[in-house]
């Protein structure tokens, strides 16, 4: 195909504004799949993604479209992940495109992730076509939303396309806008091969599949290619495009997007942003490349039943095949035995992995307190990155500690503003900006990530009755007055409950954790002290009273069936308990104790 008949684009939107529905509609209208093949939301392929309506791995699809000018165009749609934790992956996908459709729900208007995503598209110089979706809804206000797009984002919305991705109305106009408003790629077919490694994933049949955008030159089957950053050489087995069925082609030329396979063993062997070139005739100038996305939230994951450890390891290995940003390494905890220290891009990523482990691999798991990565500056001048509060060096060796800060953008109807500001202030936030777009307020806060990882999303949802939207990016590490707080149950520290906390917050957190544990840990035959301590100093304390021996006898004495039932129930319940010294701690206590009220 000649370059002028190619369009490469992404769809950017706030979650639930209709990106996947529009993508499906575009595939359907251009005939990429027959109706029978057209399952709803083809691009969100993982079960969990579909259920939660999020896209984690960027997918791509090549559409053929005969435009009103009589010419046939190749439209490559690159899907981008739709959640705050995956912002970084969004920018990578966008850099393979020349344009983007900005989809905004006409009944909702611009939201926090609309902004975050569209700014990323503007940053990589994409041409943007605004699309107002859901105009079939009675609550749709296309004119108001157009004005808002112009006010808040600062792009011209007079020619925004008004559509209903659900009914298909306006979708043909979207296709015309892609052809007429978005620029064609440029590139030189005779130059040495230069291609961008956009993404990679593990396919059970094909092995590692690499998504590429050709800048210059031609990629063919049988070619020896070199990954310039990774400095590795492979022979190409297959070159193809996704329609979204994987379809082999002879070659991919400049401006085209497609996939290759080359006996690559692991996704981790491919680095996104790398430049792929011809080993025999390499390009002289590699592409700028990306920083790899690094995990920012860590937690321990342990099997409830120690016998499941190997199964857990195998399951994590499988998930990692497709998700190089998920990290894990073995960890031993005095309280929880053998498990893994795991790293994630954010809290949602953590939740997704945990749910997949439990659901797809049928494992019962204990997750320890999520922790951010602290920079610990030691008195000898060296620095360590702390992923696990349990590994904190002796305080006498520590000069100071630094914690990651984020810049958060929150949008909500202004009646919820008071609650939102209060929440941000409670979490040590520093207000940067407060503006209005109609009756919606937009606030920008800098916050320590540490204060966001526990239950910030949940609290934000509840103070705004679900109307607030949120987006963040990490800005930098800043010094903080941080201490390690330990929880002692029956005089013994439970490492899985240790947290790093700001000194001013330690006492309140300690008290709340002790109170919660008091309710969460069942009574035993003896009295159990529960203490929160910093160093050797106890800052909060509760006591679980002893169970009187005759209580069970009195209640259940005599009735044999009832007694047996009770025993069975206890046995089943035991599976969810962890023996810790002489005390049994229920699995849920590890999570619930950490919630902040
Ligand atoms: P995404 O998160 O941006 O991918 O959003 P989805 O495409 O998953 O859509 C979110 C929800 O909005 C789904 O329940 C869709 O059925 C619904 N939806 C999408 N487009 C329209 C539309 O044009 N009209 C109406 N009424 N609902 C829509
Ligand atoms: Mg979606």
TrEMBL record:
The keyword Nucleotide-binding applies. InterPro entries: EF-4, EFG_III/V, EFG_V-like, EFTu-like_2, G_TR_CS, LepA_C_sf, LepA_CTD, LepA_IV. Keywords: Elongation factor, GTP-binding, Hydrolase, Membrane, Mitochondrion, Mitochondrion inner membrane, Nucleotide-binding, Protein biosynthesis. NCBIfam families: lepA (TIGR01393), small_GTP (TIGR00231). GTP binds at residues 13-20, 79-83, 133-136. It holds the Pfam family LepA_C. Promotes mitochondrial protein synthesis. May act as a fidelity factor of the translation reaction, by catalyzing a one-codon backward translocation of tRNAs on improperly translocated ribosomes. Binds to mitochondrial ribosomes in a GTP-dependent manner. It is a peripheral membrane protein. GO terms for molecular function: translation elongation factor activity. It catalyses: GTP + H2O = GDP + phosphate + H(+). This is Translation factor GUF1 homolog, mitochondrial. It comes from the Eukaryota. Belongs to the GTP-binding elongation factor family. LepA subfamily. Residues 4-186 form the Tr-type G domain. Its EC number is 3.6.5.n1. It is found in: Mitochondrion inner membrane.
